[in-house]
Design goal:
The protein is an alpha/beta fold and about 290 residues long. The protein contains eleven helices and eight strands. Strand 2 and strand 3 form a beta hairpin.
Length: about 290
Amino acid sequence: MQAIKRFMKIEDVYKDAVKKIVPTLAERDDFETEYQYKLPCPSCGDETASGLFYRMINQDDWYAVGKTMKCSVCRDKEAFNVYQSKSLEELRALIGERLTNEYFLLPEDLMAAGFKNFEKTNDVTSKAKETAMTYTKMFLAGELYNLLIMGNPGTGKSHLCAAIARTIKEVKEKGFSVGFLTTGQLLSMFKTTYRKGASKSEEDIFRDIKRLDLLVLDDVGSEAIGGNDDWRKGLLFQIVESRSGKPTIYTSNLTDTDLPFAVGDRVSSRLYNNTKFIDLFIENYDYRKKLQVH
């Protein structure tokens, strides 16, 4: 019973705490403790903080045990900031998951596309794969830039884009939101906003594609066939502009001579801004034929 009473004394609680925090006092009892108040707060400077101190018997100097505790106002602010930060992280995760669900429209034949199963059949495809892998590493390291992959149909442009997108998307601890769709699909999304009772507006889609950590816009220029040319070029310019400062990967079957006619000079010019280029123009080559099962 006496042991319980001794332990219940606040002085003994303080002393026990000091012994645990200050190793040199662990086996000693020739010191006294005191909890001091009206100390300057380390955050705001007001004399509203407190802290535990000790001094050796028959000595005048008091020594702080650990750091002075911040005042209650500052502690409450920090606790709120931590709570708010966690709430924002959860919100970002939910938004990222929705964005990926709505804008990661990977074709069925690219669901398993990766770097390991990309066929390197010549120096051009080998260099293209190396550049794509470097892009992925740089992205994950925080070095962000755009990528423009140009080449004739069937040279593996979409496969490389899918490999990049899937690799980045599957780094779960980073929680990157990734979009993958053709320009035709994206323009179709905008068209649906004009319908009566549409669930999204143009502003909603622009807000979404701005938020994506990475956007792959496949087959730029193919949407040029038919339709309102001024509307298409104008909207494509807004899409590219909305991605300013955010890493975007573009692919096209068109040459750098034909591309400006298909997408407009303003869009074509923007595609080269902060962009690295992969040339996959290969004469008499069809990457897809290499993947056929015989």
